[in-house]
Amino acid sequence: MKQIRLLMALCLAVGCSYQNDADEQRLLQGAWLLRQVEYPYDVPDDTLSEQEGTALLLYDGDSVVYQCWMTKTESGLVVRPGSQRAVTLIDKGGGEQVYIEGDNPRPLTIVDDSTIVIQRDGTRYTYRRADDMAVEWGTDIRNIVAANAGKNNSEEKPIYVLSAKERQQASYIQWLLATIVMIVVLAVANNVVARRRRRQLQLQLQQIQEVRQERSQTVRQAMESVETAFFASDRYEALQRRIATGQRLKDSDWQEIEAQVRKVYPGFASQLRGLHAMSELEYQVCLLIKLRIVPKDIAAVLARDMSTISTVRSRLYKKVFGQKGGAREWDEFILSIGA
Predict the structure, then answer these.
(1) What is the value of pTM for the model shown?
(2) Which of 101, 157, 254, 279 is the most exposed, fewest CB within 10 Å of its CB?
Protein backbone atom coordinates (compact mmCIF):
# COMPACT_ATOMS: atom_id res chain seq x y z
CA MET A 1 0.00 0.00 0.00
CA LYS A 2 2.86 2.36 0.89
CA GLN A 3 4.51 1.56 -2.43
CA ILE A 4 1.31 2.49 -4.30
CA ARG A 5 1.03 5.78 -2.40
CA LEU A 6 4.69 6.51 -3.08
CA LEU A 7 4.20 5.77 -6.77
CA MET A 8 1.15 8.06 -6.93
CA ALA A 9 3.02 10.84 -5.15
CA LEU A 10 5.91 10.42 -7.59
CA CYS A 11 3.55 10.58 -10.57
CA LEU A 12 1.91 13.73 -9.19
CA ALA A 13 5.30 15.30 -8.60
CA VAL A 14 6.45 14.47 -12.12
CA GLY A 15 3.16 15.76 -13.51
CA CYS A 16 3.49 19.00 -11.57
CA SER A 17 7.06 19.31 -12.75
CA TYR A 18 5.99 18.93 -16.36
CA GLN A 19 3.18 21.43 -15.81
CA ASN A 20 5.58 23.94 -14.23
CA ASP A 21 7.99 23.46 -17.12
CA ALA A 22 5.14 24.08 -19.56
CA ASP A 23 4.07 27.19 -17.66
CA GLU A 24 7.64 28.51 -17.62
CA GLN A 25 7.92 27.96 -21.34
CA ARG A 26 5.08 30.42 -21.78
CA LEU A 27 6.54 33.15 -19.53
CA LEU A 28 8.81 34.87 -22.03
CA GLN A 29 7.98 33.20 -25.34
CA GLY A 30 7.49 35.77 -28.11
CA ALA A 31 8.40 39.44 -28.61
CA TRP A 32 8.72 42.19 -25.98
CA LEU A 33 9.15 45.92 -26.67
CA LEU A 34 10.88 48.30 -24.28
CA ARG A 35 8.30 50.80 -22.97
CA GLN A 36 9.93 52.45 -19.92
CA VAL A 37 13.34 52.91 -18.31
CA GLU A 38 13.66 53.89 -14.62
CA TYR A 39 17.12 55.01 -13.51
CA PRO A 40 18.23 54.96 -9.85
CA TYR A 41 19.45 58.54 -10.24
CA ASP A 42 18.57 61.62 -12.29
CA VAL A 43 19.76 61.52 -15.88
CA PRO A 44 19.49 64.07 -18.71
CA ASP A 45 16.42 63.74 -20.93
CA ASP A 46 18.54 62.97 -23.99
CA THR A 47 20.32 60.02 -22.39
CA LEU A 48 18.17 57.59 -24.36
CA SER A 49 19.15 57.97 -28.00
CA GLU A 50 16.29 57.73 -30.46
CA GLN A 51 18.63 56.93 -33.33
CA GLU A 52 18.78 53.25 -32.53
CA GLY A 53 15.02 52.89 -32.26
CA THR A 54 13.10 50.81 -29.73
CA ALA A 55 14.76 47.86 -28.00
CA LEU A 56 13.09 44.54 -28.71
CA LEU A 57 13.63 41.16 -27.07
CA LEU A 58 12.55 38.06 -28.96
CA TYR A 59 12.54 34.80 -26.98
CA ASP A 60 12.55 31.18 -28.06
CA GLY A 61 10.86 29.72 -25.00
CA ASP A 62 12.86 30.79 -21.98
CA SER A 63 16.19 29.50 -23.26
CA VAL A 64 17.37 31.91 -26.00
CA VAL A 65 16.87 35.64 -26.48
CA TYR A 66 17.48 37.68 -29.63
CA GLN A 67 18.01 41.39 -29.02
CA CYS A 68 17.71 44.18 -31.59
CA TRP A 69 16.62 47.77 -32.01
CA MET A 70 13.78 48.45 -34.39
CA THR A 71 11.94 51.37 -35.86
CA LYS A 72 8.52 50.86 -37.41
CA THR A 73 7.78 52.88 -40.55
CA GLU A 74 4.82 53.12 -42.91
CA SER A 75 6.57 50.88 -45.41
CA GLY A 76 7.95 48.29 -43.02
CA LEU A 77 10.58 47.84 -40.32
CA VAL A 78 14.17 49.09 -39.81
CA VAL A 79 16.22 46.62 -37.73
CA ARG A 80 19.64 47.00 -36.15
CA PRO A 81 20.78 43.59 -34.85
CA GLY A 82 22.02 43.15 -31.30
CA SER A 83 23.03 39.94 -29.54
CA GLN A 84 21.88 36.33 -29.32
CA ARG A 85 22.27 34.89 -25.84
CA ALA A 86 21.31 31.90 -23.75
CA VAL A 87 18.77 32.59 -21.01
CA THR A 88 18.05 30.80 -17.73
CA LEU A 89 15.16 31.51 -15.37
CA ILE A 90 15.18 30.56 -11.69
CA ASP A 91 11.80 30.91 -9.97
CA LYS A 92 12.01 32.54 -6.54
CA GLY A 93 8.22 32.53 -6.09
CA GLY A 94 5.70 35.37 -5.93
CA GLY A 95 6.37 36.37 -9.54
CA GLU A 96 10.05 37.00 -8.80
CA GLN A 97 12.59 35.35 -11.07
CA VAL A 98 16.36 35.38 -11.30
CA TYR A 99 17.08 36.11 -14.92
CA ILE A 100 20.47 34.86 -16.12
CA GLU A 101 21.38 36.22 -19.54
CA GLY A 102 24.74 34.82 -20.57
CA ASP A 103 26.64 34.80 -17.24
CA ASN A 104 24.93 37.82 -15.69
CA PRO A 105 22.15 37.21 -13.16
CA ARG A 106 19.50 39.93 -13.06
CA PRO A 107 16.23 40.26 -11.13
CA LEU A 108 13.14 39.77 -13.33
CA THR A 109 9.58 40.48 -12.26
CA ILE A 110 6.53 39.04 -14.06
CA VAL A 111 4.05 41.88 -13.55
CA ASP A 112 1.30 40.20 -15.56
CA ASP A 113 0.85 38.32 -18.84
CA SER A 114 1.78 41.42 -20.84
CA THR A 115 4.44 43.13 -18.71
CA ILE A 116 7.88 42.15 -17.40
CA VAL A 117 10.56 44.20 -15.61
CA ILE A 118 14.28 43.39 -15.90
CA GLN A 119 16.87 45.12 -13.70
CA ARG A 120 20.38 45.84 -14.94
CA ASP A 121 22.82 47.63 -12.63
CA GLY A 122 19.94 49.17 -10.68
CA THR A 123 18.09 50.39 -13.77
CA ARG A 124 14.60 48.97 -14.30
CA TYR A 125 13.58 48.16 -17.90
CA THR A 126 9.87 47.60 -18.45
CA TYR A 127 8.90 45.55 -21.51
CA ARG A 128 5.42 44.99 -22.94
CA ARG A 129 4.40 41.94 -24.91
CA ALA A 130 4.22 42.50 -28.70
CA ASP A 131 2.62 39.40 -30.18
CA ASP A 132 1.99 41.14 -33.52
CA MET A 133 5.73 41.73 -33.93
CA ALA A 134 6.50 38.10 -33.15
CA VAL A 135 3.96 36.83 -35.66
CA GLU A 136 4.75 39.24 -38.48
CA TRP A 137 8.51 39.78 -38.15
CA GLY A 138 9.74 37.14 -35.68
CA THR A 139 11.41 34.81 -38.19
CA ASP A 140 13.18 37.66 -40.00
CA ILE A 141 14.47 39.21 -36.77
CA ARG A 142 15.79 35.87 -35.49
CA ASN A 143 17.61 35.25 -38.77
CA ILE A 144 19.11 38.77 -38.80
CA VAL A 145 20.35 38.61 -35.20
CA ALA A 146 21.67 35.05 -35.61
CA ALA A 147 23.55 36.02 -38.79
CA ASN A 148 25.35 38.82 -36.91
CA ALA A 149 25.78 37.01 -33.59
CA GLY A 150 29.41 36.08 -34.26
CA LYS A 151 30.56 39.68 -34.76
CA ASN A 152 32.36 41.57 -32.05
CA ASN A 153 30.70 44.55 -30.40
CA SER A 154 33.34 46.79 -31.98
CA GLU A 155 32.37 45.68 -35.46
CA GLU A 156 29.80 47.78 -37.22
CA LYS A 157 26.66 45.76 -37.81
CA PRO A 158 24.52 46.46 -40.86
CA ILE A 159 21.06 47.96 -40.65
CA TYR A 160 18.26 45.96 -42.27
CA VAL A 161 15.13 47.36 -43.85
CA LEU A 162 12.21 44.90 -43.94
CA SER A 163 9.52 45.81 -46.44
CA ALA A 164 5.89 45.24 -45.52
CA LYS A 165 4.96 45.35 -49.22
CA GLU A 166 7.47 42.62 -50.08
CA ARG A 167 6.15 40.57 -47.17
CA GLN A 168 2.59 40.99 -48.45
CA GLN A 169 3.72 40.02 -51.93
CA ALA A 170 5.55 36.98 -50.57
CA SER A 171 2.48 35.99 -48.56
CA TYR A 172 0.31 36.43 -51.64
CA ILE A 173 2.70 34.33 -53.73
CA GLN A 174 2.69 31.61 -51.06
CA TRP A 175 -1.10 31.71 -50.95
CA LEU A 176 -1.27 31.62 -54.75
CA LEU A 177 1.13 28.67 -54.95
CA ALA A 178 -0.82 26.81 -52.25
CA THR A 179 -4.05 27.50 -54.14
CA ILE A 180 -2.55 26.28 -57.42
CA VAL A 181 -1.24 23.13 -55.74
CA MET A 182 -4.69 22.53 -54.21
CA ILE A 183 -6.38 23.03 -57.59
CA VAL A 184 -3.94 20.63 -59.25
CA VAL A 185 -4.44 18.03 -56.52
CA LEU A 186 -8.22 18.35 -56.78
CA ALA A 187 -8.05 18.14 -60.59
CA VAL A 188 -5.92 14.99 -60.40
CA ALA A 189 -8.24 13.50 -57.78
CA ASN A 190 -11.31 14.35 -59.87
CA ASN A 191 -9.65 12.86 -62.93
CA VAL A 192 -8.90 9.65 -61.03
CA VAL A 193 -12.48 9.49 -59.75
CA ALA A 194 -13.84 10.19 -63.24
CA ARG A 195 -11.72 7.43 -64.79
CA ARG A 196 -12.79 5.02 -62.07
CA ARG A 197 -16.42 6.04 -62.63
CA ARG A 198 -16.09 5.49 -66.39
CA ARG A 199 -14.60 2.04 -65.84
CA GLN A 200 -17.48 1.17 -63.50
CA LEU A 201 -20.03 2.39 -66.06
CA GLN A 202 -18.35 0.45 -68.85
CA LEU A 203 -18.45 -2.67 -66.69
CA GLN A 204 -22.14 -2.10 -65.86
CA LEU A 205 -23.02 -1.54 -69.51
CA GLN A 206 -21.10 -4.67 -70.44
CA GLN A 207 -22.95 -6.65 -67.77
CA ILE A 208 -26.30 -5.33 -69.06
CA GLN A 209 -25.37 -6.45 -72.57
CA GLU A 210 -24.20 -9.86 -71.35
CA VAL A 211 -27.44 -10.42 -69.43
CA ARG A 212 -29.45 -9.70 -72.59
CA GLN A 213 -27.30 -12.01 -74.71
CA GLU A 214 -27.42 -14.85 -72.19
CA ARG A 215 -31.21 -14.95 -72.08
CA SER A 216 -32.69 -17.97 -73.74
CA GLN A 217 -35.06 -17.64 -76.65
CA THR A 218 -37.92 -18.78 -74.43
CA VAL A 219 -37.24 -16.06 -71.84
CA ARG A 220 -36.96 -13.37 -74.50
CA GLN A 221 -40.24 -14.44 -76.09
CA ALA A 222 -41.99 -14.46 -72.68
CA MET A 223 -40.73 -10.91 -71.89
CA GLU A 224 -41.76 -9.67 -75.32
CA SER A 225 -45.20 -11.18 -74.75
CA VAL A 226 -45.58 -9.34 -71.42
CA GLU A 227 -44.42 -6.12 -73.06
CA THR A 228 -46.84 -6.49 -75.98
CA ALA A 229 -49.75 -7.24 -73.63
CA PHE A 230 -48.97 -4.16 -71.53
CA PHE A 231 -48.90 -1.75 -74.47
CA ALA A 232 -52.21 -3.21 -75.71
CA SER A 233 -53.89 -2.94 -72.31
CA ASP A 234 -56.66 -0.53 -71.36
CA ARG A 235 -54.50 0.81 -68.53
CA TYR A 236 -51.79 1.90 -70.95
CA GLU A 237 -54.32 3.46 -73.34
CA ALA A 238 -55.86 5.42 -70.43
CA LEU A 239 -52.40 6.68 -69.45
CA GLN A 240 -51.71 7.67 -73.06
CA ARG A 241 -54.93 9.68 -73.20
CA ARG A 242 -54.20 11.52 -69.95
CA ILE A 243 -50.71 12.39 -71.09
CA ALA A 244 -51.84 13.41 -74.58
CA THR A 245 -54.32 15.89 -73.09
CA GLY A 246 -51.52 17.41 -70.99
CA GLN A 247 -52.91 16.40 -67.59
CA ARG A 248 -50.40 16.69 -64.74
CA LEU A 249 -49.65 13.41 -63.00
CA LYS A 250 -49.99 13.08 -59.24
CA ASP A 251 -47.55 11.27 -56.96
CA SER A 252 -49.88 8.29 -56.91
CA ASP A 253 -49.83 8.25 -60.73
CA TRP A 254 -46.02 8.17 -60.78
CA GLN A 255 -46.01 5.34 -58.25
CA GLU A 256 -48.39 3.40 -60.46
CA ILE A 257 -46.24 4.08 -63.54
CA GLU A 258 -43.10 2.93 -61.74
CA ALA A 259 -44.87 -0.22 -60.55
CA GLN A 260 -45.98 -1.06 -64.10
CA VAL A 261 -42.51 -0.48 -65.49
CA ARG A 262 -40.99 -2.75 -62.83
CA LYS A 263 -43.54 -5.43 -63.69
CA VAL A 264 -42.89 -5.32 -67.43
CA TYR A 265 -39.13 -4.58 -67.21
CA PRO A 266 -37.93 -6.10 -63.90
CA GLY A 267 -34.33 -4.95 -64.20
CA PHE A 268 -34.91 -1.49 -65.65
CA ALA A 269 -35.00 0.68 -62.50
CA SER A 270 -31.99 -0.96 -60.82
CA GLN A 271 -29.90 -0.84 -64.00
CA LEU A 272 -30.83 2.80 -64.60
CA ARG A 273 -30.10 4.03 -61.08
CA GLY A 274 -26.87 2.03 -61.03
CA LEU A 275 -25.54 4.00 -63.98
CA HIS A 276 -26.07 7.50 -62.61
CA ALA A 277 -27.50 9.26 -59.54
CA MET A 278 -30.54 10.90 -61.11
CA SER A 279 -32.74 13.78 -60.11
CA GLU A 280 -36.49 13.25 -59.92
CA LEU A 281 -36.98 15.04 -63.27
CA GLU A 282 -34.34 12.90 -65.00
CA TYR A 283 -35.84 9.70 -63.63
CA GLN A 284 -39.37 10.67 -64.67
CA VAL A 285 -38.18 11.49 -68.20
CA CYS A 286 -36.57 8.05 -68.42
CA LEU A 287 -39.75 6.32 -67.20
CA LEU A 288 -41.83 8.07 -69.86
CA ILE A 289 -39.28 7.25 -72.57
CA LYS A 290 -39.48 3.60 -71.52
CA LEU A 291 -43.26 3.81 -71.87
CA ARG A 292 -42.73 5.14 -75.44
CA ILE A 293 -44.22 8.55 -74.71
CA VAL A 294 -43.18 11.03 -77.42
CA PRO A 295 -40.98 14.00 -76.37
CA LYS A 296 -43.65 16.69 -76.88
CA ASP A 297 -46.03 14.82 -74.55
CA ILE A 298 -43.22 14.33 -72.01
CA ALA A 299 -42.67 18.08 -72.04
CA ALA A 300 -46.38 18.76 -71.62
CA VAL A 301 -46.97 16.36 -68.72
CA LEU A 302 -43.83 17.60 -66.90
CA ALA A 303 -44.63 21.26 -67.64
CA ARG A 304 -41.25 21.82 -69.30
CA ASP A 305 -40.14 23.21 -72.64
CA MET A 306 -39.21 20.77 -75.37
CA SER A 307 -35.67 22.20 -75.29
CA THR A 308 -35.41 21.34 -71.59
CA ILE A 309 -36.47 17.74 -72.18
CA SER A 310 -33.99 17.45 -75.04
CA THR A 311 -31.20 18.88 -72.87
CA VAL A 312 -31.98 16.43 -70.05
CA ARG A 313 -31.69 13.46 -72.41
CA SER A 314 -28.46 14.57 -74.14
CA ARG A 315 -26.90 15.52 -70.78
CA LEU A 316 -27.71 12.08 -69.36
CA TYR A 317 -26.05 10.44 -72.35
CA LYS A 318 -22.86 12.44 -71.78
CA LYS A 319 -22.82 11.71 -68.04
CA VAL A 320 -23.25 7.96 -68.54
CA PHE A 321 -21.08 7.41 -71.63
CA GLY A 322 -18.53 10.19 -71.07
CA GLN A 323 -18.99 11.59 -74.56
CA LYS A 324 -21.38 13.86 -76.43
CA GLY A 325 -24.54 12.25 -77.67
CA GLY A 326 -27.97 13.26 -78.88
CA ALA A 327 -31.33 12.94 -77.18
CA ARG A 328 -32.38 10.19 -79.61
CA GLU A 329 -29.29 8.15 -78.77
CA TRP A 330 -30.28 8.29 -75.11
CA ASP A 331 -33.82 7.21 -75.98
CA GLU A 332 -32.46 4.20 -77.88
CA PHE A 333 -30.33 3.26 -74.88
CA ILE A 334 -33.29 3.53 -72.48
CA LEU A 335 -35.42 1.33 -74.72
CA SER A 336 -32.64 -1.29 -74.84
CA ILE A 337 -32.11 -1.86 -71.10
CA GLY A 338 -34.23 -3.79 -68.66
CA ALA A 339 -35.80 -5.76 -71.45
Answers:
(1) 0.44
(2) 279
